[in-house]
Amino acid sequence: MGEVIVVTSGKGGVGKTTTTANLGAGLATHGHRVVLVDADIGLRNLDVVLGLENRIVYDITDVTGGHCRLRQALIKDKRFEGLFLLPAAQTKDKTAVSPDQMKALCEELKQEFDYVIIDCPAGIEQGFRNAIAGADKAIVVTTPEVAAVRDADRIIGLLEAAELRDPRLIINRIRPRMVRHGDMMSIEDIIDILAIDLLGVVPEDEMVVISTNRGEPVVQDERSRSGQAYRNIVRRIKGEAVPMMNLDEGGFVSRFLRRMIGLS
Amino acid sequence: MLEFLNRVFGREAGGSKNVAKERLRLVLVHDRASVSPQLLQTLKTELIKVIEKYMDIDEDALEINLDSNETQVALVASIPVKGMKRVTRHLASGI
């Protein structure tokens, strides 16, 4: 019996979909059977982030509406053994799926997969309520900005009200240099305000843009820092104790010197 | 120029994160209070229980609100007292 994890944030554009794609690909690399569910009905995105947009035949509303069997709608990612996508509908609106249908769908997926990861739409309306309906656990994604942290706080309150206790936090797009200069809230600042457990921190990284352009999750990029950050988060989800990545790689000169003497 | 030097040497230059934190703190006080409207009601009920041990108060006229200006948020309570209870003196001297 697998577990259902919803990835949510409140605010849009903080990296929910990218996070979902990378956690899915990462968990599949560890040999797990994983299905990613795009719950953002009407604004489907997870398919393009994963590079699977040309292979969609059926979507989530075809499954809940009984137009096809669940198995027919699942798209197998050929690059990652064990990774599947259940795409959102692009032409329907958020009321096309009900929370009860979502619950039943999650129950069915749990029988077959180790991890069911749901990409939640932005906002706190019907789409959000659908996405969390069948979830066992929640991951809240935020960035170090006032608006994103404020919305994360609201979402944490709503998750608790829905009895989804102890959500864990991913801080995305942190810029260590700005934090060092006191121009960006630090990990500690954000944890202090939101008072929830930290699951991981992903540094701002151009490689995320580059790999998303190609439709390839950055988690498989051995050299990028964001890829490393996602790999660490994947292991923490599996229950391993992985220390937080040292983001403070220093300025250009110290990086250069460290490389010269073989420290990094 | 000084700012530039500060930046080069990694000193606290802008410190704009402190502004962000302070704004966030204030906005969350409001958000969290408005997310749970029962909170004020619960607080009110418990306050009445405590105060009634010492005073007769007019429960119906009791008002509790969160007031705020740009720099702080305050819990403002208006509690009309109808009379003091004699037991206060016992409590004060009796311990």
From TrEMBL, chain A:
All residue ranges annotated as the CobQ/CobB/MinD/ParA nucleotide binding domain in the record: 5-218
Transmembrane parts of this sequence: none
UniProt-listed Gene3D superfamilies: P-loop containing nucleotide triphosphate hydrolases (3.40.50.300)
SUPFAM superfamilies assigned: P-loop containing nucleoside triphosphate hydrolases
Positions with a binding annotation for ATP: 11-18
Keywords: ATP-binding, Cell cycle, Cell division, Nucleotide-binding, Septation
GO cellular component terms listed in the entry, alphabetical order: cytoplasmic side of plasma membrane; cytosol
GO biological process: division septum assembly; negative regulation of cell division
Cell cycle recorded as keyword: yes
A Pfam family the protein falls into: CbiA
UniProt GO MF annotations: ATP binding; ATP hydrolysis activity
Family recorded in the similarity comment: Belongs to the ParA family. MinD subfamily.
Function: ATPase required for the correct placement of the division site. Cell division inhibitors MinC and MinD act in concert to form an inhibitor capable of blocking formation of the polar Z ring septums. Rapidly oscillates between the poles of the cell to destabilize FtsZ filaments that have formed before they mature into polar Z rings.
Name of the protein in its database record: Septum site-determining protein MinD
Species name: Desulfofundulus thermosubterraneus DSM 16057
Automatic annotation (TrEMBL), chain B:
Gene: minE
Cross-referenced InterPro entries: MinE (IPR005527), MinE_sf (IPR036707)
The keyword Acyltransferase is assigned to this record: no
Species, as recorded: Desulfofundulus luciae
Function as written in the Swiss-Prot or TrEMBL entry: Prevents the cell division inhibition by proteins MinC and MinD at internal division sites while permitting inhibition at polar sites. This ensures cell division at the proper site by restricting the formation of a division septum at the midpoint of the long axis of the cell.
Similarity comment text for this entry: Belongs to the MinE family.
Keyword Cell cycle: yes
A Gene Ontology BP annotation from the UniProt entry: cell division
Keyword terms: Cell cycle, Cell division
Entry-linked SUPFAM superfamilies: Cell division protein MinE topological specificity domain
Lineage: Bacteria, Bacillati, Bacillota, Clostridia, Eubacteriales
Domain of life: Bacteria
Name of the protein described by the UniProt record: Cell division topological specificity factor
